[in-house]
Input
Amino acid sequence: MSSLNKIVLIGSIETNPELKATNAGDSVINFSLSVDRPQRPDGTQGGTDSIKVVAWREKAEVAAKLNQGTLILVEGRIQTRSYENDEGQRIYVTEVEARELKPLVGSDIAGIQTATVSATTEPVSTPEPTIETKTVDDASNFDFTDDSAELSKPPEFGSEVEEDIPF
Amino acid sequence: MYNKSFLIGRLVRDPETRVTVSGITVSRFTIAVDRFKKRGEESSADFIRVVCWRRLAEICGQYLKKGKLVAVEGPLHIDSYEKDGVERESVEVVADNVQMLDWGTESVHEEEMTERSES
Output
């Protein structure tokens, strides 16, 4: 089923975030982000939203280095969950799970700029170039008398050879 | 400061639409937004409350029904209120744009149900 869940926030960190670890060893951090609403048409301040944010693993490590008042960008998803408190009441929580955390201007904390973590920037191993050895065998008209150094590279076939490839 | 969310989900139940004492129409509904599911995992969803005002609320109250797929765009607002002497918090997306993504079987209009709220 099609679905989309995305939120972008710019706000300041309300309290110094505290890094915790789950039993499984994952680091997690919770903090509130203070986001001012736009001014009302009459020029008065529109109020402030205090939005709960949760970040995991590398993103939690980044957030742990940030101080109260730091202006950051948070991109993530809105998550709802519930738990039972000590009095047996069911508590419903709506919070933002951060996919990306980026300190903005004025938050020149050493190392933060480079430590900014995006879930999408995980190292991607470049796939080994696949040489279709079978095709090379089939290409009987390939000139093997050529400079042998050429053979270390995948040979470039003429268009007539490409037509022979059975797919 | 910036605050904007983009959601696509299905209405969990019919919207509740009413008119405030000052004469402004307000419509509230909850949408279920499917979570990304890995193979073998059970499907789950986030249930996100949406509120819209004025003309948009009238349209939502008129056309939205339980099970309809909608796209919602707007800021996430946190408001605190008191109920039975206990301080509570409401967390909802204030829709400034709602689009219906399936018209279902009773499709009569081709028109887009998009309406910018005045706020």
